[in-house]
Inverse folding.
């Protein structure tokens, strides 16, 4: 009789669908919860496919029940989790669910991953012996999940943080749970603050951003540009000088060249914006210079984009210091020449022209005002040749390099 | 009622066979004159089972076709016969089913046989429509203890379903459940589990995952695991069945209290007996658990007992046996107090007890007045 049963079994396996075979094989061993899980997952897929309707992307996909490579491990882990649950070892249950969540890593299986992260959180709550490590982990995973869906992850990350604070738990890659929690919270707070910014609720936004900054500081992870970005928001929102020191601290403590560049740029830009309200040209000037020097040090393709910016920024700081301003303009012009980009060149030309004209204006008007034979002579000579130089009243000969000629001429035209 | 016939006097080629055992017949039903029996016992059995209802229908079906000269007339007659056959098949099937559920297997057999014969006449020799009749025959035989006959019928049924593509889930579910019960009875537990697994799968496909139908499958499966001495699996299955039934009954009670329908029958006789037996078996198992298990399992057992008693109370309430409902309701309240966890459960138990008491007082008032 036994042989007959085996034969029937083999025949049935070829006749029936994979789904039925797997379901029956689970049920035979009494794994009814695994069966329910498995069955409801497939049903959910089917329902969402029906809801999407024919012609949608989901409709075109290969049905989940025709992926033996996905279904076999699913059954394997589910049954293992259930037998572990029967035996009362929830650690194993948790690990099996986590393994499943990691297994379904493809984007179209995202909902399965979420589902198993939820289950692992549930089973982690039942583990009593590890002082909450797995619960913390599970909360961290849930946080990530919700972060992908939207910033609903705050609660999970806060639980994660509270459980992980003061512990030395590490994950596989060697990061501590604590720093991960901090990073996650920082990201969430930034997201939340962005929402607040959209609704123009600046006060709460700043509060949340301060929290985010605290988290970033506490996490001490190498990706400090997160805190940079946070600070940039702070700067753009409130009084920039308040945060200037912190900012410079981070910037100097960094090896990250791109991050440093961003830092200087952010400072310069924010200062520039504030310059209209509280004119402190010297501050702006120094930061622009710092930014420019930094640009000079770093790679030339970074200059490609930035030389033009330098031109524009320098216009601000040249108030009153035309000669030095035009000096930087000529450097920008040189850069534009070496890069060979026509729009940058034109812009630089125009800027140089403006600067030169401004620089010329002062001795010229001085000469007109003072009068006297020497200045008259100088005026006449200048008018005759229309040179790019001018002898001012002190008798100094103001002259500029040849390559800036075109600039002034374009301006005169 | 019966007239004697002599087989030697039959016309050539026309053999008269007993309705039940297919042996040469010596008796004829005088009412319809188309049914024959080998002896009085068989005639009596058939009469008790189905013939008293089928007698008149059989006259129309079995009497030879009158001579029609037109093709259309002949077709019409054929159609009519087919229709009557189907009618008879349904009638005998229903009758046999009723007898099986009442436990009168002896009386169910002739009806089931008639149903099968009609199905063969209507649908030809190998049709999936025979399966219900086979299942009934198998069940009746199992009830009588004729396991080998039952297995024969079931393997016929299985063969038919195997040959039919796209067989309906309900039929497959019933077939596998009967097969599982047969193998449980014969002690082949592995095969029984395989069939119950198939049964639950098909039932879930048709009725949904947490339906009462699949709960029946889980229960039978749990019984097999008990016999295989794997109590942990059995307990987990029992708790699944308990939760399904508890949910189902709670919904029914809620429905009942909202609509307040009177006179509506929630369960038929067979279901009533089955559910009662099932819930009681599980309650006993859990109470054994309460007595024997260590403290870790104790609260689980108590919780399950509370759920089961509550289910039973709701069940008897729906069946309008209010004194039983009250008994079980008090039991449930006791259990839920002991396990001290499920607050919502305790509340619903209390409200049920109140409802039941109200009904009891309403019933008592007329008797006092009389």
């Amino acid at each position: 009789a036994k042989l007959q049963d085996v034969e029937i079994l083999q025949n049935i396996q070829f006749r029936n669908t994979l789904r039925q075979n797997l379901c029956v094989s689970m049920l035979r061993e009494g794994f009814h919860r695994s069966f329910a899980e498995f069955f409801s997952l497939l049903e959910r897929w089917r329902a969402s496919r029906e809801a999407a309707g024919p012609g949608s992307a989901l409709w075109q996909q290969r049905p989940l029940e025709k992926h033996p490579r996905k279904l076999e491990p699913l059954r394997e882990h589910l049954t293992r989790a259930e037998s572990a649950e029967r035996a009362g070892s929830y650690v194993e249950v948790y690990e099996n669910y986590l393994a499943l969540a990691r297994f379904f890593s493809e984007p179209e299986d995202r909902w399965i991953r979420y589902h198993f992260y939820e289950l692992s959180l549930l089973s982690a709550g039942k583990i009593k012996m590890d002082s909450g490590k797995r619960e913390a982990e599970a909360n961290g995973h849930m946080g990530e999940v919700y972060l992908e869906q939207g910033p609903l992850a705050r609660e999970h990350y806060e639980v994660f943080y509270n459980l992980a604070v003061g512990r030395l738990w590490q994950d596989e890659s060697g990061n501590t749970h604590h720093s991960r929690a901090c990073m996650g919270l920082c990201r969430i707070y930034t997201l939340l603050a962005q929402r607040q910014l959209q609704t123009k609720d600046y006060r709460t936004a700043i509060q949340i951003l301060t929290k985010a900054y605290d988290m970033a500081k506490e996490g001490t992870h190498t990706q400090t540009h997160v805190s940079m970005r946070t600070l940039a928001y702070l700067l753009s929102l409130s009084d920039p000088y308040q945060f200037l020191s912190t900012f410079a601290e981070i910037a100097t403590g960094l090896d990250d060249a791109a991050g440093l560049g961003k830092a200087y740029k952010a400072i310069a830009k924010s200062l520039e914006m504030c310059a209209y309200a509280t004119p402190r040209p010297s501050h702006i000037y120094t930061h622009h210079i710092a930014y420019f020097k930094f640009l000079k040090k770093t790679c030339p393709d970074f200059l490609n984009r930035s030389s033009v910016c330098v031109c524009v920024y320098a216009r601000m700081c040249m108030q009153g210091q035309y000669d030095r301003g035009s000096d930087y303009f000529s450097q920008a012009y040189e850069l534009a020449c070496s890069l060979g980009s026509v729009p940058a060149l034109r812009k630089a030309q125009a800027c140089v022209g403006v600067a030169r004209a401004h620089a010329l204006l002062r001795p010229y008007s001085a000469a007109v005002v003072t009068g006297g034979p020497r200045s008259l002579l100088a005026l006449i000579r200048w008018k005759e040749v229309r040179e790019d130089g001018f002898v001012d009243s002190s008798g100094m000969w103001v002259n500029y390099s040849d390559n800036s000629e075109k600039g002034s001429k374009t301006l005169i035209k | 009622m019966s007239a004697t016939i002599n087989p030697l006097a039959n016309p050539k080629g026309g053999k008269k066979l007993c309705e039940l055992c297919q042996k040469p017949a010596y008796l004829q039903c005088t009412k319809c004159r188309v049914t024959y029996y080998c002896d009085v016992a068989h005639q009596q059995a058939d009469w008790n089972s189905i013939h008293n209802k089928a007698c008149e229908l059989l006259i129309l079906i079995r009497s030879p076709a009158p001579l029609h000269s037109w093709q259309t007339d002949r077709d019409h007659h054929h159609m009519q016969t087919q229709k009557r056959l189907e009618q008879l098949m349904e009638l005998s099937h229903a009758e046999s089913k009723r007898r099986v559920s009442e436990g009168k297997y002896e009386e169910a057999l002739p009806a089931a046989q008639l149903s099968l014969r009609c199905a063969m006449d209507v649908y030809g020799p190998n049709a999936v429509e025979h399966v219900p009749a086979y299942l009934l025959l198998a069940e009746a035989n199992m009830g009588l203890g004729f396991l080998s006959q039952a297995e024969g019928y079931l393997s016929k049924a299985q063969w038919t379903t195997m040959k039919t593509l796209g067989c309906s889930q309900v039929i497959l579910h019933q077939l596998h459940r009967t097969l599982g019960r047969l193998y449980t009875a014969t002690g082949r537990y592995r095969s029984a589990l395989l069939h119950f697994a198939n049964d639950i799968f098909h039932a879930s496909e048709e009725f949904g995952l947490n339906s009462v139908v699949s709960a029946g499958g889980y229960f039978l499966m749990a019984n097999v695991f008990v016999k295989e001495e794997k109590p942990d699996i059995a307990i987990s299955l029992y708790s699944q069945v308990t939760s399904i039934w508890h949910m189902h009954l709670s919904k029914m009670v809620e429905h009942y209290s909202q609509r307040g329908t009177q006179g509506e029958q929630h369960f038929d006789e067979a279901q009533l007996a089955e559910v009662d037996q099932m819930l009681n078996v599980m309650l006993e198992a859990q109470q054994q658990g309460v007595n024997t298990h260590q403290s870790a399992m104790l609260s689980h057992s108590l919780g399950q007992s509370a759920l089961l008693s509550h289910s039973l109370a709701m069940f008897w309430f729906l069946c309008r046996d209010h004194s039983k409902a009250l008994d079980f309701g008090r039991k449930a309240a006791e259990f839920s107090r002991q396990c001290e966890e499920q607050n919502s459960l305790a509340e619903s138990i209390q409200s049920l007890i109140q409802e039941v008491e109200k009904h009891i007082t309403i019933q008592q008032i007329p008797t006092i007045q009389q």
Q: What stands out?
A: Chain B has three domains: 1-52, 81-167, 236-261+268-363.
